[in-house]
Amino acid sequence: MSGFAYRVSGGKAERVEIKQALASDADLIWVHLTTNNEHAQAWLVEEAKAPDYIVDALTATETRPRCDALGDGAFLNLRGRSSEETPTSEPLASVRIWATAGRVISVTRRSLVAVDDVVETIEGSKIRDPGDLIAEFASAITRNLDPEVADLGDTLDDCEADLDADKVFELRRHVTKVRVAAIGYRRFLAPQRAAIEKLAALPCDWLQDDDRLHLSAAADRAARMAEELESIRERAALMHEALTDLRAEQIDSRALIISIAAMIFLPLTFITGLYGMNVKGLPYAEAPWAFDAITAVCTVISAGIIIYFVRRHWFGHG
Q1: Residue 295: is its pLDDT beyond 80?
Q2: What is the pTM of this model?
């Protein structure tokens, strides 16, 4: 079992072993587990005396952001940016938190960037109780996600600025990547806002007014990011349609050129094929000027067809 623990008394944080974390009283005891094996489950049951429902929630394989009240405690599941490579279907790593008066237990399956921020804050003596710790978790997670969402919008802005028929395939790859990322992020950010808001409204004694304000601010930021992601998704869909139209126009333009070439050479092919037959009786077959005459006729026909197409504005695509 891997992880770490902190014990906070009088505003001073002390890093301790996990096995010693629950041995004494303190203003705040934070135990963070970075594994999901049987040893962690056994510790949660035997040492932390966590209810079966909480153990299952802390060690579940599939999770989504939510908040549940349990007596004077609360279970919170949040999603944040991971330092590891994540699958497209789940671009954000989860952190499961069980908080009661004086105690917080958190579990992650993959590394979470926000954990390092929380550790830095608690070592700076800025966290004194469970409310401060959870509020810092929510703030750090939304704060780390904000630049990611902004980068998606900037990438889409660049694609819109570079909209060109010659870059259709490259732009479609970028737009598709942005759209998939936006959908993946929004899938978790929308319920995450509701979870944080629900936590801020719980009647827990260990949640102070300033903690609720910080949670409300984090929920507002999550809501803003969810709205931005919805906008990015819609813009990406419109961009994809525009690229499809450009591709269709490109194909139509090439088909038009091929059609014009075919129309020009179709009568010429007929004339040259007719006079290319190896049979007796072709008019002027023996005349020395016949070749020049046929060439001149083909030239006149080609020029006439081209002039006709120019007057019909076929070369102008409209």
Answers
A1: yes
A2: 0.75
